[in-house]
Design brief:
heterodimer, A: alpha/beta, Glycerol-3-phosphate (1)-acyltransferase, 9 helices, 42% helix, 15% strand, B: mainly alpha, 76% helix, globular
Chain lengths: 214, 319
């Protein structure tokens, strides 16, 4: 049921809407054809980021892939809760922890151990359009404890202009989603892994020189 | 199925024959470059193969536009304008981030312009973008209230509309022109005439430039353009225009002029887009990400050739 809903929403509505109307272009999206568990890591500028990645996923991975979102934002109203449960298939993480809660890292690793995939935006928040902020440590902590799980670096450009943080009006512009090859971490320490992943994301940008200039 | 096709299509021998010629040329080019690629593998041949591929796409789009019901063609042309405007607005560095809401007005002008073309409201069609939108966009910019560098946006946005929407909509308007007695090919014939000649002119200029090119014509903008290529393409295009004038109501002399206008207009459009790209630091929007974008590269010549040709034929036969 949920699967049908998601296939309908992402493949029949979002994919053509993003591709033809908005102008989101997928580059090397065949790299997403990787069976779970895998961690998709991307920079973050807009709500469209999650939409574009989910719409690009293979149909059989939709139910087993979870974007990771903040509980205080997406748990907010009943509408946001409905969207994050039925449309986004999201895992909600609490930013402030109470006694007895699992740590976010443990929570996410549970899903990975069940054979599910994650979509992570290590910048934490959407931030200013077209700028990349520092990566948070969470991605390093997870890959440090599960180094056998491959990650896929993704760089997105232009999304911040189409639908920036705090705007409600969507304006079509050309945007690019550049998907890198799945790979395993080379380093052991948490901070080294964070650095390595960030470099991998930036490498997707540098592959296409002109994306730099947009 | 039949109502999807334009009526009298199969009776239109002129249009049918030129479509066959186009398909013939494309098949010939595909086979030629495939064989060349086998004998001399390399980047140059691969570039030619890439170009042939995009010609196939262009040809399919325009042939379908002439064969299908006019309403479908108008939607297709409007989408082409939309994608081109989106690409131009995306790569332009002269538009401020504050202008994103104003760009919505530019997009909204597209359905209006194509509706006017479809209904054949010629006077409104002619002034809607160069006069009405030319006033409306600066006004909306002023209402938005960001005055820093507002002059830049006031001039850039209407020019982008002119280049991607006003110009291409003239191709669509050809399909709205009334029937002339004794002229069988009609608007479809005119559409094929101008698109075919514009594309062939690009090819001729490229080929002559490669064969004989020595003297740069406009080196700072397009280092590959030479006088030899330009003149060779110009003459060849005029000759071809003479031979396919059965698509038009032109006399022999008029067809030569039409060919000259298209060759010259195509060249102007080409170098304008080259200059815009050079300003941003791109050489070729199409080649940077394989298989994506590059719509401007495809329609740059048409953007000037189409309206120039349109007013030439309009003033001679339809005014």
């Amino acid at each position: 049921m949920k699967w049908l809903l998601m296939v309908f929403y992402y493949k029949l509505l979002m994919r053509p809407f993003l591709g033809i109307f908005v102008g989101v272009k997928l580059v090397n999206s065949e790299n997403l054809r990787q069976s779970a568990p895998v961690i998709i890591v991307s920079n973050h500028n807009s709500h469209l980021d999650t939409m574009s990645l989910m719409a690009a996923l293979p149909v059989n991975q939709l139910l087993r892939t979870h974007p990771v979102a903040a509980a205080d934002y997406f748990g907010g109203s009943w509408l946001k809760r409905f969207i994050s449960r039925w449309v986004l298939n999201a895992i909600l993480i609490k930013r402030t922890r109470e006694a007895g809660d699992l740590s976010p890292t443990d929570q996410l690793i549970q899903f990975i151990d069940k054979g599910h995939s994650l979509i992570l935006f290590p910048e934490g928040s959407r931030g200013e359009p077209e700028e990349i902020q520092a990566f948070q440590k969470g991605i390093g902590a997870i890959l440090h404890r599960r180094p056998q799980v491959p990650y896929i670096p993704v760089f997105m450009s232009g999304m911040g202009r189409i639908l920036p943080k705090g705007e409600t009006l969507l304006v079509p512009f050309d945007a690019y989603v550049v998907v890198g090859k799945p790979r395993n971490v080379q380093h052991e320490g948490v901070l080294e892994i964070v650095h390595e992943v960030k470099q991998a994301v930036l490498a997707q940008r540098d592959q296409y020189q002109h994306i730099n200039k947009l | 199925m039949n109502y999807l096709l334009s009526n009298r299509f199969t009776e239109n021998k002129e249009v049918l024959s030129i479509i066959l010629v186009i398909l013939g040329i494309l098949i010939f080019a595909t086979v030629l470059f495939f064989v060349l690629g086998r004998i001399y593998p390399g980047d140059k041949v691969r570039e030619l193969q890439q170009r042939t591929k995009s010609w196939w796409i262009m040809a399919t789009v325009f042939i379908l536009a002439t064969v299908l019901h006019p309403a479908i063609s108008f939607v297709a042309f409007a989408l082409l304008s939309f994608a081109a405007l989106r690409e131009l607005a995306s790569i332009s560095k002269n538009v401020r981030p504050e202008d994103r809401r104003v760009i919505i007005w530019c997009y909204l002008a597209i359905p209006v312009q194509y509706f006017l073309a479809y209904m054949g409201y010629f006077n409104l069609f002619m002034i809607f973008i160069p006069v009405i939108m030319f006033i409306w966009i600066p006004f909306v910019l002023v209402v938005r209230g960001f005055t820093v560098e507002i002059g830049k946006s006031m001039s850039v946005l209407p020019v982008q509309l002119m280049f991607t929407v006003f110009s291409i909509s003239h191709l669509a308007y050809l399909l709205s022109l009334p029937e002339l007695s004794g002229f069988n090919a009609g608007g479809r014939g005119l559409l094929l005439f101008v698109v075919f000649l514009t594309e062939m002119n690009d090819v001729f200029q490229f080929t002559w430039g490669k064969l004989l090119g020595k003297n740069k014509i406009i080196e700072k903008i397009s280092p590959n353009k030479t006088w030899e290529g330009f003149i060779g393409g110009f003459i060849t295009t005029i000759v071809v225009a003479y031979f396919i004038r059965f698509l038009t109501p032109f006399t022999a002399i008029e067809s030569l002029f039409a060919g000259a206008i298209i060759a010259f207009g195509g060249f102007i459009g080409d170098v304008i887009v080259s200059a815009i790209k050079r300003d941003i630091g791109l050489k070729d929007t199409g080649n940077l990400i394989p298989g994506h974008g590059g719509i401007l590269d495809r329609i740059d010549s048409l953007a000037i050739a189409a309206p120039s040709f349109f007013y030439f034929v309009y003033n001679l036969y339809y005014a």
